[in-house]
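Long-time lurker, first post. I've been practising inverse folding by hand and with some scripts of my own, and I keep getting stuck on stretches where the structure tokens seem ambiguous. Below is the full token string for one chain I'm working on. Before anyone asks, I'm not after the true native sequence, just a reasonable design that respects the backbone. If someone could post their per-position residues I'd love to compare against what I wrote down in my notebook.
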């Protein structure tokens, strides 16, 4: 590719705050030293050349600002950066056990999935990656945290793309850069944050897109989840194929009914089971309480719970609540204790059936 430098326009003040030709040269240098694909580099060079011609004739439009923003996005994307995977199944099991109580069958399926990925990574002639995992269950049943555990096990970045209420496919695919205030979609934005082209991408609540947008959004999902297509995913703003084949896609859904048959065909459904009261007590006592103690920063010796109180914590109003609501309840109890501790009303307290109402939040 020939080296180019742009002349400073004669009809512009060289001492001007913005020396546009000089700035254009800086953009050109950024592109030259980046990992942008060669064909795209040539296209961007032509854009910059056209802008410089306009500047030489004293024409300055918003096009320079748009192109500067465009180049900034291009050079910041991880076109060739791949993080190294860790396929230690023993460590993966430790992480799964640390983050999830019970659910042994689901943990085994996740370990099987990681085993296949490990084998595929060692094979030069490996076929397309297996079906995408989709965790289906009620809110608070641990769907999202399983995706987090998989990313932690592999040592990959986790990108969470919230699909709930998504009203346009452009939120995923971006807008053409010719549009005013155009910007990339959520996929490209996430890749920039991750700084690697192979993150774990969590498509959260894919069944909850806004009414009327389902067909468009599902069309983009097909492109993302299909290994025969996602090696050349095109964001409308970037306007050049980006290889997503090395990324791992994981989906969650509250129910399967809102998904098209074509999307379902590319998913491996994992149904999250209902927890029994005994399960919820163990989760609340052994997982949620330590997490919330750390979050609230309340010393452990300040508060303790009577063993017989946990059934009332998981059913604070006498009826069933989900895991997320149990966590909010525990957080509310600790906050009330923290307030009394800070203002000197207590040094330590044991939550029992007699004083539970004093600490139980009212929501």
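-- Answer (accepted) --
I ran through it position by position. Result:
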């Amino acid at each position: 590719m020939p080296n180019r430098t742009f002349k400073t326009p004669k009809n512009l003040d060289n001492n001007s705050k913005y020396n546009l030709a000089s700035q254009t040269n800086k953009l050109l240098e950024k592109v030259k030293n980046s990992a942008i694909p060669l064909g795209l580099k040539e296209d961007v060079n032509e854009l910059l050349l056209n802008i410089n011609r306009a500047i030489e004739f004293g024409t300055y439009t918003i096009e320079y600002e748009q192109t500067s923003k465009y180049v900034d996005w291009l050079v910041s994307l991880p076109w060739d950066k791949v993080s190294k995977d860790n396929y230690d199944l023993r460590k993966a099991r430790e992480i799964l056990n640390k983050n999830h109580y019970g659910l042994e069958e689901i943990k085994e399926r996740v370990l099987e999935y990681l085993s296949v990925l490990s084998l595929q990574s060692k094979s030069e002639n490996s076929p397309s990656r297996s079906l995408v995992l989709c965790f289906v269950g009620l809110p608070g049943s641990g769907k999202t945290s399983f995706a987090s555990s998989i990313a932690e096990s592999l040592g990959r970045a986790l990108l969470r793309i919230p699909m709930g209420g998504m009203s346009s496919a452009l939120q995923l695919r971006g807008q053409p850069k010719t549009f005013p205030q155009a910007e990339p979609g959520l996929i490209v934005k996430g890749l920039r944050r991750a700084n690697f082209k192979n993150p774990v991408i969590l498509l959260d609540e894919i069944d909850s897109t806004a009414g009327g947008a389902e067909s468009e959004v599902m069309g983009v999902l097909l492109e993302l989840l299909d290994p025969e297509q996602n090696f050349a995913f095109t964001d409308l703003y970037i306007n050049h194929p980006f290889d997503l084949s090395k990324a791992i896609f994981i989906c969650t859904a509250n129910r399967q009914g809102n998904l098209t048959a074509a999307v379902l065909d590319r998913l491996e459904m994992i149904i999250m089971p209902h927890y029994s009261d005994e399960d919820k007590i163990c989760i609340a006592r052994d997982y949620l309480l330590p997490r919330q103690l750390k979050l609230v920063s309340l010393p452990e010796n300040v508060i303790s719970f009577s063993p017989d109180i946990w059934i009332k914590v998981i059913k604070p109003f006498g009826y069933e609540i989900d895991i997320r609501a149990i966590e909010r309840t525990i957080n509310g109890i600790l906050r009330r204790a923290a307030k009394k501790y800070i203002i000197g009303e207590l040094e330590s307290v044991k939550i029992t059936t007699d004083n539970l109402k004093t600490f139980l939040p009212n929501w």
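A couple of notes from the structure itself: Residues 277-359 form a domain with the Helicase, Ruva Protein; domain 3 fold (CATH 1.10.8.60). Residues 90 and 111 are 9 Å apart (CA to CA). Happy to go over any region you disagree with.
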